[in-house]
Amino acid sequence: MKTILYIIQKEFKQIFRNKGMLPIIFVLPILQLVILSNAATFEVKNIKFGYIDHDRTSTSRALVEKFNASTYFNVLKNYPSETLASSDMLKGNVDIILQIPQHFERDLQKEKSNTLGITINAIDGAAAGVENVYISQIIKNFNKNIKTDLVQVSDTQIQPISIETIPLFWYNETLNYKTYMVPGILVLLVTMITLFLSGMNIVREKEIGTLEQINVTPIKKSQFIIGKLFPFWVIGMGLLSVGLILARLIFNIPIIGSLPLMYLYTSVYLLVILGIGLFISNFTDTQQQAMFISWFFVVIFILMSGLFTPIESMPKWAQMVTEFNPVKYFVEVMRMVMLKGSGFSDILTRLLKTVVYAFIMNGLAVWSYKKTN
Amino acid sequence: MSITVSNISKSYKSVKALENIYFNVKEGELFGLIGPDGAGKTTLFRILTTLLIANEGSATVAGFDVVSDYKKIRNNVGYMPGKFSLYQDLTIEENLNFFATIFGTTIKENYELIKDIYVQIEPFKDRRAGKLSGGMKQKLALCCALIHKPKVLFLDEPTTGVDPVSRKEFWDMLKRLQQKGITILVSTPYMDEAALCDRVALIQDGKILQVDAPNAIVKHYSKQIYNISAHNMYLLINALKSYKYNHSVYPFGEFVHYTDQRADFNPENLKVYLESKKLSQIVIKNTEPTIEDTFMELAK
Lengths: 373, 300
Hints:
- The complex is a heterodimer.
- By secondary structure, chain A is mainly alpha-helical.
- Chain A has 14 helices and 4 strands.
- Chain A has helices at residues 2-17, 21-39, 58-69, 82-91, 104-111, 125-150, 177-208, 210-215, 221-249, 259-282, 287-303, 316-322, 326-340, 344-372; strands at 47-53, 73-78, 96-100, 117-120.
- Chain A has a 4-stranded mixed sheet, sandwiched between helices.
- In chain A, strand 1 (47-53), helix 3 and strand 2 form a beta-alpha-beta unit.
- By secondary structure, chain B is an alpha/beta fold.
- Chain B has 2 domains: 3-218, Rossmann fold (3-Layer(aba) Sandwich), CATH 3.40.50.300; 225-299, 2-Layer Sandwich (Alpha-Beta Plaits), CATH 3.30.70.
- Chain B is 35% helix and 28% strand.
- Chain B has helices at residues 41-48, 70-76, 92-102, 111-121, 134-146, 164-179, 191-194, 214-219, 233-241, 267-276, 291-299, and strands spanning 3-12, 15-25, 30-34, 56-61, 64-65, 77-80, 152-156, 183-188, 199-204, 207-212, 225-229, 246-252, 255-260, 283-287.
- The longest helix of chain B is centred in the middle third of the chain and has 16 residues, at 164-179.
- Classes of the chains: A mainly alpha, B alpha/beta.
């Protein structure tokens, strides 16, 4: 026990003496949290909008006016021809082209229906999807108003009853992206920092040769590993605390659920991450290699965690893969507890899976540590 | 016996690093492992310090088998690897404290043993190990290897890259440690250091060439060696190498060490030959063989 304590003490000394590492551990995560949470939003604004009006009637002008009134669209140009519009889209000057056909108003009155041509620049697929929703909403609204304008009184009897939906967004009423992103980014930071640091730490001893010196001492592997990894567990917990405080103070994110529950889950989760870090460091010889391999895993973990893209929309096989992604569980638990106030029984399955994961990872790591050294 | 090594072999894939290594080191002996770079000295050290397992053969250190009793060995040996491997970002005192703690002891407890060495670096005890000079780093490493009062001390090329004064100092320290009853196994590529050991093993390409006391090893050298000098070293070596009766020609400081194949060799004949090669100021003298000569002869 005394040995472990001494190693921990030594480890902390080394961490605090490493002038290059300190800001990486404490300042960068905070900067990232502040910057990413403000920047990483799925809202698309200032959409470059152009149109070709073949109709030139009050109805077509009213439709364009609707887009003009929206804060999301910048109505830039009325193109005289399709060729000009397409070439402008090719140049990137315009993202959406709305084509209003000839006799738009007349046909609308006569046939009671009409079609509009919309071309969306889908280089950025996610943005194109969002833009499509905005456009549909504006046109739907326009459609509703135009009915009252165009439809003659005698037709009112055959007017179908329309169904309207009024969505309620539970747990995040205003669909505030920050509420949704901050817990996720917090997860990302805690994971990244602890994985990188723990992965690089033991390799560093290998690199500078101290591991060989340690190996000829009577110290037990378990003492050494615990002593080396515990400081990063503490740092991980510290990062979580700093992140939660920032989330509350800067972003005003509601923390509905219980804090001890979050800490309980994080404490187990960090064991998984430290196990992965140790595992990586067993199979690498330099800090550089360890860094690259950790980075590889972090990217996969994060992209498949449901942090940026919903897991439900992934193909079946990818969904299966995410079952093995510890970050996924952490993201889910953080969002559930912070935003919804989930209790212990709600996260129990995820907690158990994480515990099993921690056992497997650390078991593998300790086993391979013995084997390679 | 403090260390016994019998028929140790170790290969890395297709490379044979050690082949049938055998020797014994008595208790309290200062034993040298002499050989050039790549001879297998470090591999042997790693096997004896339980960092590596040999393919064949067995060895004991301080009475414990290196494979089955490796845990006991780790309590009883001190190891100073060739490369400086202490924490550069910890101070002298912290490094020493760290190693004392993981050996379950304290600096105070064994201070007597390291005192001689430690007092020399004590004024800098708050300096980080990374900022120390080569000689001081080495003294610190030695202190760390001694802090738990080991029975056997392994020093892997401790003097490589160290200035001559520090080298001399270092060997004096080893002598003093030896008097305290510690068995020391030291490896070095420097032949002149071999004479300072009680016994040495000459090792090359993973094989033992000879194990004996330094002065006894020299006696194995049967031929008479001649120190030859002339006005031009380069021409002299060339001339000697093209002499048809030469047995060995090695530059040795300001002289060339020469041996002849013939039993009835007369230096005068050689002098005549050298003069015919347009060399002047020729001096040919008898000399005693050194360990280096022996090594070169054995390694032939």
